[in-house]
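At this stage, I wrote out one protein's amino acid sequence and its backbone structure tokens, and that material follows here:
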Amino acid sequence: MREVAKMANVSIATVSMVLNGNPRISKATQLRVQRVINKLGYRPNPLAQSLSSRYTRTLSILLPPLRHAFADLYFGEVISGVCDRAGKLGYRVMLDQAKPDFIKDRKHIELFERRFVDGVLCLGCNDRHHFLEDFIEPNYPVIVVNNYFKRWNLDYVVCDYSGGAEQAMRCLMQMGHRRIGLITAAPEVQTTSELTQTYHRLLTEAGCPADDTWIEDGAFTEEGGAAATERLLARHPDLTAIFAGNDKMAIGAIHYLHQQGLRVPEQVSVVGFDDLKHSAYTSPTLTTVHLPLYEIGVIACDRLIERVRGRAERVAERLPTYLVLRGSTALAPTGGA
């Protein structure tokens, strides 16, 4: 920086302000200093910058140790939103997995205490991840992404699962469906609980309450969705619709129905929940609830940086969802499956 300052005929402080985009520096001075920087090939040292500043300008996305998490389209959409927004705001993003040894060695707290990051975005976490309780301290800027916790007062940004489930169920019921099976997973996730409660409430209001035999766990996978559909049909061969808690399970359900010679949607309608890109290319195309996953990532990143910079108000935002009607739903048949 001394060399840059000497050649540009400015102070070291001016070079520092140019590098940090300080608006007090005139355009002419910025250009002069930048020309010298380019000529010398000078690159700021990120570690030195973080040591001399309050901020590291680095965020962490903390994921549970899920198999193939980084290949999953759901996580990919959210992470893309975070990374794109962080990059525009001059932040780097690092990915961490909360594996047992990571938590045992308290590396999730070390991220803050050793100033590796300014803040953490918790993605894919649920009530079983008790390490989240360690983030309750106000000096740990943390945002929970697309879930929330009643027992831990942590900031969150989440999609409106209850509203989306109501749209999906009302659509099926307006088409005449009453014998509706539900495929879900991870009941310890608050958003899953919202979806299940909405399913029960609307069927009860319609005078046809469903017991637990109408609900199956599909493990959030295509294979799980197919297996869950098999179990549902074994108990309730007269069901006319399946509502799945994500698109993967819905696609698995359609696959199993086709294998059994059942026509979708003529004999059984299927609704998913996500609206991931491949849902528009299934056969038939999948009716599903659109979740603004990319936008969730963008907004969560914004709110985390605001918290890092001193925001005091609690973050508790819920983004709207909407139903996308495609080819996998139709009027209920009179005879059932």
Observations:
- The CA atoms of residues 139 and 147 lie 21 Å apart.
- The mean pLDDT is 91.
- The radius of gyration is 25 Å.
